[in-house]
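Minutes, project huddle
Topic: does the predicted pose make sense with 2-acetamido-2-deoxy-beta-D-glucopyranose bound?
PN asked that the exact inputs be recorded in the minutes so nobody has to dig through chat later. Recorded below.
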Amino acid sequence: MLDSLSLLWLVAMTTSLVSKAQILTPQDYEEEDAESVTTPSAAVLCDYDRCRHLQVSCVELQKVGPVACMCPGLSREDQQPDPPRLGEVHIVAEEGRATVHWCAPFSPVNHYWLLLRESNGAPQKTGPFNATVRRAELNGLKTGGTYVLCVVATNDAGESHVPGADGEGPENWAGSSFGPCGKLIVPPRPATLVHAAVGVGTALALLSCAALVWHFCLRERWGCPRRQSRAQASEGL
Ligand SMILES: *[C@@H]1O[C@H](CO)[C@@H](O)[C@H](O)[C@H]1NC(C)=O
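Predicted holo structure (tokens), as shared on screen:
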């Protein structure tokens, strides 16, 4: 009886010891290390620039980087992305094209689109561009044309907000300088400017000719006082 009791006690002691030992297995230490590595206390920012062309996502950088780094916080994956920010637009008027730059929003993004709308026309879509892209070319722009250009980000939950797409007037499209939209004014072709200058010059020359002709015709009709007086004088001789 006493033996079986002490045996039970022994069994209880060993099991409790074993379970305590399990709590502190090396596996646990590893897991703790892994956790402390991924916590933001590492305080090194990832080399992630949301405006850089062909920028891989910050999560990818964290996966492949030699040292642990921190990423900016993103909006939720089950929400549509925030609007991207339209950056510099470089217009080559002679070739009717423009290079458009933008910056990623702080949201998960699958693709980007460019929306181009000419004054009253329907918006033209360009793309899609993958999530690393921050720069794209627009072609077929009309010289002297005025457009509104917007960058749209999409993810599984939907598309980023485009001002003007839901009843706001197009004049509000390009309202904010840090928004997804901007006005695109394609200057007239230099050749057009030369033509215009030649045209204006010709018009001015014609106008002054007409003024001269008109002036002399009037003088012919009403007579020139000096010539009349000279004529009178010669008659008198
Ligand atoms: C994204 O698009 C760019 C430009 O078209 C291309 O160079 C790059 O390989 C693409 N990246 C992926 C992950 O598809």
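Observations noted during the meeting:
- The helical segments are 2-23, 26-38, 58-64, 190-222, 225-236.
- The domain at 40-195 is CATH 2.60.40.10 (Immunoglobulin-like).
No decisions taken; revisit at the next huddle.
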